[in-house]
Design goal:
It is built from five helices and five strands. The protein is an alpha/beta fold. Strands 2-1-4-3-5 form a five-stranded parallel sheet. Helix 1 links the parallel strand 1 and strand 2.
């Protein structure tokens, strides 16, 4: 099993890279998400947002591994507790199937991409910067793994 975090945005601040990498290095290789950065679609006054989202959709679709379980990070998705995420992680490891976690750009994921997703995962009702979502997902994967491993990190 490989977990790919396919995320729109290629120029992240140092704190995003440092935060993401901190949690990735704590995880065993089979649970550590591999970051695939997707160039954001061009946006501007004369460029409709739909065009940018379309560009991002094509780029994301091209990077999703064949037969992967596709999960879109979306405010309209289902919220999971950390314990539920640990259960999903256990299932993914047991199935051995690749997992693709999708993070959209400033305008989120397109309707087409959301329809392609087997599941939609919401990190809550707050709108979060897409850069921060990378760090949160990496930390939650680490926390879920610590639950499965009876590691003392998770103290809920």
């Amino acid at each position: 099993m490989k977990i790919q975090l396919i995320a729109v945005g290629t120029r992240m601040p140092d704190w995003v890279r440092a935060g993401f990498n901190e949690y990735v290095k704590r995880l065993p290789q089979h649970c550590a998400p591999q970051l695939v950065e997707i160039e954001a679609g061009r946006r501007g006054k004369s460029i409709p947002a739909d065009k940018a989202i379309g560009e991002e959709t094509r780029r994301i679709m091209a990077r999703i591994p064949p037969d992967a379980l596709v999960i879109g990070l979306d405010v309209g998705g289902n919220g999971w507790t950390t314990e539920e995420l640990a259960g999903h992680l256990s299932d993914w490891m047991g199935e051995g199937r690749d997992v693709a976690l999708l993070i959209g750009g400033p305008d989120g994921l397109s309707k087409e991409l959301l329809e392609h997703c087997a599941r939609r995962w919401s990190l809550g009702k707050l709108t979060l910067p897409h850069a921060l979502v990378r760090v949160i997902v990496a930390e939650q994967l680490y926390r879920a793994w610590t639950i499965l491993s009876n590691h003392p990190y998770h103290r809920a």
